């Protein structure tokens, strides 16, 4: 049976109202959850000192931390200045993650643009190599290349898995809602989990979950409460019951910890408990 870590993408606001990232770690544990993603999506504004304090709290309360890098990253931009700034945002995210003991930094790496998929793949690989080297962290933090929702974005399952095989400090981050949207409303949880096992064995798997919106004849990357069932969460819970793997599920629903608790309830209904 899966060893599951579950928690919100950011600071709890609905069941409890935490005032800061530091408060949030304690709140997550008090809610009975055991993971949290620290959101740098609007920029890396946390000092190293605060990152260390957050890390200490996570150790004290036994909460598994991850980080989401800023959204303003495009490693395949036609403008060299934008690539440099994108890489620096990733470097800063890696630095803070290292100091707080977070194990992965999730990133939306690029848009294909004029490079196209193959040349974009090579450019992303080159820039991630630079970022990891420039961060100076040595080891201990993965760059998590996220599966993206839009077909003009770098981040298909094939691209993320291939990149992770070529760079040992990269790991794919499967965003189930994004994958559902990218595949136009189709998802096969078991197929992806089996592929993971074949490619990465018992490596810890980091994932995101939310429902997405259907608009103008297509699924779009706009987050919805998980009760919308696009994609449904219950089949994933059923698949996890059948598998022996370590997995983090970060709830990116607009309802954050409220929906994370609903996910926990569904998991427990299928006999899957959170890791202790």
From TrEMBL:
Matching Gene3D superfamilies: Divalent-metal-dependent TIM barrel enzymes
Keyword list, A-Z: DNA damage, DNA repair, Hydrolase, Isomerase, Metal-binding, Zinc
Entry's Gene Ontology BP terms: base-excision repair
Keyword Coiled coil appears in the UniProt entry: no
Residue ranges annotated for the Xylose isomerase-like TIM barrel domain, each copy included: 25-254
The protein's required cofactors: Zn(2+)
SMART domains: AP2Ec
InterPro entries (alphabetical): AP_endonuc_2 (IPR001719), AP_endonuc_F2_Zn_BS (IPR018246), Xyl_isomerase-like_sf (IPR036237), Xyl_isomerase-like_TIM-brl (IPR013022)
A matching Pfam family: AP_endonuc_2
Transmembrane parts of this sequence: none
Family to which the UniProt record says this protein belongs: Belongs to the AP endonuclease 2 family.
Name recorded for this polypeptide: Xylose isomerase domain protein TIM barrel
Species of provenance: Pyrobaculum neutrophilum (strain DSM 2338 / JCM 9278 / NBRC 100436 / V24Sta)
